Amino acid sequence: MRASSVRVRRQLAGSPWLFAAPGLLVAGLFVLYPFVSTVVNAFTDRRTLVPGEFVGLANFRELLHDDMFWTGLRNSALYVVGVVPALVVLPLLLALLVQKNIPGITFFRSAFYTPVVASIVVVGLIWVWLLDERGLVNAMLETVGVGRVGFLSDQWLLLVSAMTVTVWKGLGYYMIIYLAALANVPRELHEAAAVDGAGAVRRFVTVTVPAVRSTMVLVGALSSVAAFKVFSEVYLMAGPSGGPAGEDTTLVMLVQRTGTGLTGRVGYASALSLVVFVVTVALMLLVLRADRREES
Amino acid sequence: MSVAEKVRTGRPVAAREPRVADEHGRRIRGLELVWRYLLLLGVLALTVGPFLWQLSTSLKGPTEDIFSSPPTFLPEHPTLHNYERVAETIPVWDYALNSLKVAAANVVTNCVGSALAGYALARLRYRGRRAATLAFVLAMLVPVEGIVIAQFTTMRELGLNNTLVGVVLPGSVAAMNVLLMRNAFLNLPYEIEEAAFVDGANVWQRFWRIALPSVRGTLAVVAIFAFMGAWDDFLWPLIVLSDPSKFTLTIGLNYLHGTFANDERLVAAGTVIAVAPLIVLFACLQRYFFRGVGEGAVKG
């Protein structure tokens, strides 16, 4: 009896590592190792089929003189500027709209969430057709006498259209996050404000916004990181080459275009990836720091 | 408590009179109610309308004008002709099967891998546990977009590029899921497992019989988001798959769009095929979707 229990103990001695092994293996081999190898490759001239050699800062020097890099950086940054304010404010208003339990509200909540569930490819193609030169939006604009707009042919309109799609797809997701936050706002605050004669707008500014401020910061951080890494929407709407003369290329599109395929410049694409990584981390820190400063 | 539950635990609406109360039991005035419903219907048109327009386009036959202005919203003679044409143009059912394989595999690997690792992090005493936790936290923070190129070269080194296994592997045990499961296990009371331990249950029995059944809710969230994530994913399969016979639905749709962009009915039918299964899944399992947003956002 005793001997067998010792044997069982010994058999199980390694089990914590056995339990954690599959997860650690995947995280190590497919996330942490690729990250380290991205950092290392950024200082080499490695290509998909050529091992490459150490080239120091050559990739980063090239980057500074690469017009496409600056285009990509500009577009990805513009994306943050355009998308984040909308994704911080609109889902909050939407959450207020669906917060009250009126008949049928669960249906509306679910319906507003549908775009989140759909693949970005589906969403992108739906909007490519909606915003087509002869699509629904232009047909309606023509009916009301505005005339047709080249949403998908003009460099800037394309970018704005893609941003609209990103916001459209993200609304429901952040709405759910805000709903959870709103459920925690004490109603006494609203009642007190109402007694004081504050209208809906006033109560929104003085009660709701301060109460969900930390959630707004969270949404700001999540959406700005996601916006800077934008790929699919622009890839689908502007095409793989990034719209007219590639002017709508985003940074991640450039990474994908440069680094993949049999002729991929892995070294240079890794340098680009590092920029994506650094800016992403910086954005997150920036949002969190702005939050702390405001608080103090 | 999950988001959806929180939202729904409001007071039931009084059924006797046609009067409507808000979540605090106060009456909402009639005029305000009208405004609310008008706004809700407006947003509904904006969020669901595009899907319906796509469905409508996919059902319009070759003789019907899909470009008319003012637009016609309902197909005059609904037909499934475009769906047959998609299947003739690209092997769309093979792509759907590939997507299904990838999504199903992703569900299994994520559920098994993250439950095991989460349990190890939460319950088992061993040296190196903090290092292991840190590894998962770091892995969660690394943005996929920043490492796809290195993931691609890693796959090449393993000889797995251009295979469905290669599509699944990088996300097969997502670090975030491991940490979600860890938190779920940490929230369980210790006492039951201690009692089982005293009764002679080994680690495996404690995990399988006692701990795991108690975290089914979180496991369901992991499963659903693993399925949705794999089914919807675009960037990674686009990079790792080059052979058209291996395409998943999203990559196949991208190909369809790239090659037959001027055939809107065809692309519309393709997108409906790709999105319908997920909408059905969502309709059936809504509360887990909402719960996942709440738990994911706190972590993410």
What are the segments of chain A in which pLDDT stays under 50 over at least 5 consecutive residues? none
Radius of gyration of chain B: 24 Å
Query: Which stretches of chain B are poorly predicted, pLDDT < 50 over at least 5 residues?
Result: 1-18
N-end to C-end Cα span of chain A:
64 Å
The CATH topology of the largest domain in chain B comes to MetI-like fold
Strand fraction of chain B: under 5%
CATH hierarchy: architecture of the largest domain in chain B: Orthogonal Bundle
Index terms:
heterodimer, A: about 300 residues, mainly alpha, MetI-like fold, B: mainly alpha, 15 helices, about 70% helix, disordered N terminus
In short:
The complex is a heterodimer of chains A (296) and B (300). Chain A is mainly alpha-helical. Chain A has helices at 2-12, 15-41, 58-64, 67-99, 105-117, 120-130, 136-143, 155-182, 187-195, 200-211, 213-228, 232-238, 251-259, 266-295.
Q: Explain this structure to me?
A:
- The complex is a heterodimer of chains A (296) and B (300).
- Chain A is mostly helical.
- Chain A is built from 14 helices and no strands.
- The mean pLDDT of chain A is 89.
- In chain B, helix 11 packs across helix 15 and helix 13 packs antiparallel against helix 14.
- Chain B is an all-alpha fold.
- The interface between A and B is large, with 99 and 111 residues.
Topology:
The complex is a heterodimer of chains A (296) and B (300).
Chain A: H1 2-12, H2 15-41, H3 58-64, H4 67-99, H5 105-117, H6 120-130, H7 136-143, H8 155-182, H9 187-195, H10 200-211, H11 213-228, H12 232-238, H13 251-259, H14 266-295
Chain B: H1 3-8, H2 30-58, H3 81-89, H4 92-123, H5 129-141, H6 148-157, H7 164-168, H8 175-186, H9 190-198, H10 203-214, H11 216-232, H12 235-240, H13 249-259, H14 264-284, H15 286-299
